[in-house]
Amino acid sequence: MFNFSVSFIFFWIKARVDVDTTALNVRTPNLLLGFIPSGRTSQNVSINTISNPKVHSKISFIPLLIGIILLAWGIFEMMGNGMILGIILAIIGILIGISAFQSALSYDANGKTHEVIAPFFQKSSLEDIRKSIQTQLDELSKVAAAKTDDNSKQFLEDL
Where does the chain cross the membrane (predicted)? Predict the structure, then answer.
């Protein structure tokens, strides 16, 4: 079982991923614009349908744009009369802008690509999940290879 933060700003909001010999179970909160909590998504995928697990970095454009706009607005407010408002807007802009930098675990299952997204500082957690998935896939391959060998031997004995 893996628990990790899914938001830079709301770091206490966690996702949960379970990897076992039969399935990958993912429970993640939904986030609007990358930082506003809005529900939860659950996904159960059979481990033998998963392929190509990988971890990569990505940048979400909308939170980055909102962060830049709020930062600029805050700077202009600080130059004018609203020092307190400017500082608040600048801090919020920086936090939202930083939340645009993300790590993602992606994998293919049943012909679709799925992603589990986390803040950039959670990349090691996603890498641990990827390794766990890969370990399960390797075990399945070994079992399948052993069954194939047994079937081949049985076929040759029957001849």
Answer: 59-76, 82-101
According to DSSP, residue 60 is labeled -
Is 23 strand, coil or helix? Answer: strand
Domain hosting 90: range is 61-98
122 and 52 within one domain: yes
Nearest to 154 by CA among 111, 53, 146: 146
| pTM score | 0.80
For residue 19, the SS3 value is strand
pLDDT in tens, 21-47: 889 999 999 877 666 778 899 999 999
- Looking at the fold, whether 53 and 67 belong to one and the same domain comes out as no
Is the pLDDT at 155 greater than 60? The verdict is no
Number of domains in the chain: 2
Indicate whether 108 and 154 sit together in one domain. Answer: yes
Q: What pLDDT does residue 65 have?
A: 96
d(CA 96, CA 108): 30
Q: Which two tokens stand for residue 100?
A: 């645009």
The tokens describing 77, both together, are 């407010």
Question: How remote is the C-alpha of 37 from its chain's centroid?
Answer: 15
Domain shared by 105 and 94, yes or no:
no
Mean pLDDT, the chain, rounded, equals 88
Whether the CA torsion 62, 33, 30, 11 is positive or negative: it is: positive
